[in-house]
Amino acid sequence: MRRVIAQGTFDILHPGHVHYLSDAAAMGDELHVIVARAANVTHKPRPILSDQQRTDMVAALDVVDEAHLGHPDDIFVPIEEIAPDVIVLGYDQHHEEAAIESALAERGIDCEVARASPRDPSHDDELLSSGRIIDRIVERRC
Ligand SMILES: Cc1cc2nc3c(=O)[nH]c(=O)nc-3n(C[C@H](O)[C@H](O)[C@H](O)COP(=O)(O)O)c2cc1C
Ligand SMILES: Nc1ncnc2c1ncn2[C@@H]1O[C@H](COP(=O)(O)OP(=O)(O)OP(=O)(O)O)[C@@H](O)[C@H]1O
């Protein structure tokens, strides 16, 4: 049983998220997803949807075995609990594979770090970014 972890904000699901999670699921047998707490999303605007709603929506996807709301202060706590064989980073995530690998090794966690592939739009008007979906809502409804 090869356990995989994927993680992210997942504010307003779109096909790019489904692609990432399907890619991650294909790297093992059981996919666990850690959903970032809004309080820890500091590199972009705060999510629109609550921590619980984002976690519930990720949990509802077929490719996901379990969705976990992230830890408030220590990202390694859920990893220690899940005990994954591989952590899959999104194609554009700012985290460095090497930095995560060395932090895992320091904690004695034996786990690979891999990176998922991007999904390109399948048609002209496909929006593959929560931020761009929100921008369009603001443009069209405000
Ligand atoms: C291996 C790993 C574990 C993470 N665990 C948590 C966590 O427990 N709690 C949390 O709030 N954020 C956690 N994060 C941070 C977010 O999931 C995510 O990297 C970031 O906030 C959102 O990035 P995005 O723009 O790709 O959605 C983790 C990140 C990584 C790489
Ligand atoms: N088009 C895409 N192709 C592949 N993976 C994607 C795509 N869009 C998002 N992801 C992945 O989904 C995960 C969660 O992404 P995130 O919640 O940051 O969504 P986002 O739409 O990129 O957000 P934002 O528009 O606010 O930057 C990340 O690992 C990201 O790499």
UniProtKB/TrEMBL annotation:
What InterPro entries does the record tag this protein with? Archaeal_FAD_synthase (IPR050385), Cyt_trans-like (IPR004821), FAD_synth_RibL (IPR024902), Rossmann-like_a/b/a_fold (IPR014729)
Summarize where ATP binds, as residue positions.
9-10, 14-17, 92
Record's catalysed reaction(s)? FMN + ATP + H(+) = FAD + diphosphate
Q: In which pathway does it act?
A: Cofactor biosynthesis; FAD biosynthesis; FAD from FMN: step 1/1
Report what the protein is called.
Answer: FAD synthase
Q: Where is the Cytidyltransferase-like domain?
A: 5-135
Give the protein family.
Belongs to the archaeal FAD synthase family.
PANTHER family, A to Z: FAD SYNTHASE
Cite the entry's keywords alphabetically: ATP-binding, FAD, Flavoprotein, FMN, Nucleotide-binding, Nucleotidyltransferase, Transferase
HAMAP family with a match to the protein in the record: FAD_synth_arch (MF_02115)
Molecular function (GO) terms for this protein are:
ATP binding; FMN adenylyltransferase activity
Cofactor field: a divalent metal cation
* Record's function text: Catalyzes the transfer of the AMP portion of ATP to flavin mononucleotide (FMN) to produce flavin adenine dinucleotide (FAD) coenzyme.
- The lineage's top-level taxon is Archaea
Organism of derivation? Haloferax elongans ATCC BAA-1513
Biological process annotations from GO: FAD biosynthetic process; FMN metabolic process
This enzyme's EC code(s): 2.7.7.2
Subunit structure of this chain's protein = Homodimer.
